[in-house]
């Protein structure tokens, strides 16, 4: 595997993708008064915060933010949230992650809501690599990349540095 990095998205392009996805969420939920955006830690949560901010600025929808921390090494669903999952009852939930590769992380994220009667559950990813093993799909996608399995997508949403980037290596 090569150590060279191919730039895919820069700071401005990532913000454009976030803006577009926020508008799509708004269009998909025009009649809603409140939705929950659930970001999968770490990078998915940072992305969720940014989508929430844009959505709050463009719409009158009340947006609650949830952080989901998964144990991805476990063969069973082990998840912690910073927002009570039962409070999502009869609401629209947007599940957010940075990259969709095999679908395992999103599938685990979906599992958090299996015992809660939701109005609607949607998924959002910044990069969709289309190498799914699990039967998950995305409703809102920043960019879809045709990659080979050996390649890796690095998403950096620099909270401290303020510099965002997506690279293929």
From TrEMBL:
Keywords: Glycosyltransferase, Transferase
Family annotation (InterPro entries): PRTase-like, PRTase_dom, PyrR_bifunctional
Cross-referenced Pfam families: Pribosyltran
Ranges for domain Phosphoribosyltransferase: 8-156
Lineage summary: Bacteria, Pseudomonadati, Bacteroidota, Sphingobacteriia, Sphingobacteriales
Protein name from the UniProt record: Phosphoribosyltransferase
Source organism: Hufsiella arboris
Keyword Glycosyltransferase: yes
Gene3D superfamilies per the UniProt record, alphabetical: 3.40.50.2020
MF terms (GO), sorted A to Z: glycosyltransferase activity
Keyword Glycosyltransferase among record annotations: yes
């Amino acid at each position: 595997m090569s150590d060279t990095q191919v730039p895919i998205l820069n700071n401005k392009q990532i913000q454009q993708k976030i803006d577009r996805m926020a508008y799509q969420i708004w269009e998909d939920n025009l009649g809603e008064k409140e939705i929950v955006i659930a970001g999968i830690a770490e990078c998915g949560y940072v992305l969720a915060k940014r989508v929430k901010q844009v959505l709050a600025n463009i719409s009158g929808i009340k947006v609650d933010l949830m952080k989901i921390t998964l144990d991805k090494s476990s063969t069973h669903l082990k998840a912690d949230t910073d927002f009570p999952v039962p409070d999502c009852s009869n609401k629209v939930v947007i599940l957010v992650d940075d990259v969709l590769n095999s679908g395992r992380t999103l599938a685990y994220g979906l599992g958090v809501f299996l015992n809660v009667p939701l109005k609607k559950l949607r998924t959002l990813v910044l990069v969709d690599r289309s190498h799914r093993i699990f039967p998950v799909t995305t409703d809102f996608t920043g960019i879809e990349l045709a990659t080979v399995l050996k390649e890796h997508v690095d998403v950096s949403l620099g909270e401290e540095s303020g510099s965002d980037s997506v690279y293929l290596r």
